[in-house]
From TrEMBL:
InterPro entries: Flagellum_FlbT. Coiled coil: none annotated. This is Flagellar biosynthesis repressor FlbT. It holds the Pfam family FlbT. GO terms for molecular function: mRNA 5'-UTR binding.
Amino acid sequence: MSNLVLELRAGEMMVVNGAAIRFRSRSRIELASRARFLFGKQIMAPEEATTPARRIYSALQTAYIGSDEEREQARGIASRLIRMFRDATTSAAARLILDEVEQAVTVDDCYRALRLTRRIIRHEDAVLGVADNGGGVRQDCEIAAS
C-alpha cells in the first residue's frame, strides 16, 4: 500500500476516522495506513445541508467518517434520502447517478457515494440556478481513500 501525502493550509480542517483536526499552520502530512478521512472543503458543515442533494451528502459524510454507531444510522438515513430524491426528481440523469449512490451505500463504499453525490449537487445547483460562491463541498477534489 502506498502512503498518501496531503498538504493542508493553516486553519483547514481534516477528519480522520471520526476525529476532527484543525491545522494551526501549513502542514504536510502523510497517511501511512488505511483511514476514513475528509479534509478542507470536502467537509460539509451541518448548516450547509440546505437542499436534498446536500442532505444526502451530509448523511453520507457521517456514514463515512462517523463512529461505528453513527455510521450505521447515517447509512440508513442516506438510503432513505436517496430514495426520496430519486422518487421526486424528473431528471433521468440524476436518477441514474442516485442508483449508483445507493448501490455504493449498500456495499458500504461511502467514499464513492460521496464522490457521486458531488455530481448530484452540481446537477441540482444547475437546475436550481445556484451560483457557486466558493463555499460548500469542493467539487474538484477526488482524492482516493486509501
